[in-house]
DNA sequence: CGAATTTCTTGATTTAAATCAGGCCTCTAC
DNA sequence: GTAGAGGCCTGATTTAAATCAAGAAATTCG
């Protein structure tokens, strides 16, 4: 269950957890009296259909947004990282569910407050522009990429400063490596990539067999050949 | 080719075409000295990779945004309608190509000008929120819907005030009808829905055979049973 | 107008991924 | 330690959509 704190007004700048404080500097909402909330892993922040009144900024952790079809099919539409803003609703209801993948710190703020501040407006616009770009790239993935390309793109997305787009120069060919921690289960990855859990599992096994990745624990993946993987994303 | 006009400053409020003038009232950029541009059908407004300096507001017509993979695969990521804003770039380059589907009137404005106006900021935020919601729905379509559900959703999207979401009440079951004009070719529809042209053609033929739609010219479709079609979108 | 080009449709076949089904780890709890 | 549960992997089979391959409409153009 969610462990939610509502600090006294003006207290948001000094949360109990120093790490959260450090990370919340990434955004600027906390300085405007935003409520700070702490969630555990796999907590729901809001459900599709819930009344939408506020905006959320992820300060720490990972959150996914997903939509469900009546028959149970699920599509994860966004995977959010610290600094991302979510919970915007065109109408009065949330159009997707927000669920944490890890423990998470979230700042909550009223849209009206943002509208009053040109600085926050600018920040919001910049954030939405970046998210829109990610959504466009994800549309390409879902609409036009093969299963292998989807998984390769997903893994590259987890490499900081690469985001599945950039490719290392010729200097670090073949034997460059990178360790990454998976916060998503195979089912969540499948629902993000528009695949089944079996297909994700098979593709990952195949990458392992080909020596492109190495796996000890299911949630820890070592990318043995980042460059090779990058070339499998369909972008190059 | 594009027929581009750059009216003298302050002239944007009075374009030659009265229809354009009427429609431009939908937005508010024209009042802030935005450049007005007129494009023909199938003109490129900007290419993926072009330097991005300005923002565009569609005043009249239809525009699509698409991305290409190096091997030629294409994904149409958005289909824009009057009032929509596009051309936002996180970095300094456009991340997708903008091409008109019909003749179109476009207002061009500097992001800096918007940042100076709280009213425009609000409008921009509202517009981005709405577009993001459409992108989320489209991710569900691309990631989780069957070919029939995709085509049904697409057709419903073209019914004003429905947008593939709402369904008419039980009063207008079966024999409600709606005429719509397709501004996209089968190939463009396929690239929007993440299908091949053949699959789109087959699904459309099948809907015709089942009496759900009627087609005389390839670009004019009469929806014979809007309600039935709505039930085929996967949403109900 | 008729030729040429493009767009659309339809059929036959292939294939990538889904589905169906079972077994194997890994962690937790007792 | 053993039992149970959930997550993960793998194999066999099916299937929806892609691909391959012609034709048939439209549309453009000389």
From TrEMBL, chains A, B:
Keyword Cytoplasm among record annotations: no
Domain of life: Bacteria
Pfam families xrefs: cNMP_binding, HTH_Crp_2
Ranges for domain Cyclic nucleotide-binding: 39-87
Molecular function terms from GO: DNA binding; DNA-binding transcription factor activity
A single GO cellular-component term on record: cytosol
Annotated InterPro entries: cNMP-bd_dom, cNMP-bd_dom_sf, Env_Response_Regulators, HTH_CRP, RmlC-like_jellyroll, Tscrpt_reg_HTH_Crp-type_CS, WH-like_DNA-bd_sf, WH_DNA-bd_sf
UniProtKB keywords: DNA-binding, Transcription, Transcription regulation
Residue ranges of domain HTH crp-type in the record: 145-227
Protein's name according to its UniProt entry: CRP/FNR family transcriptional regulator
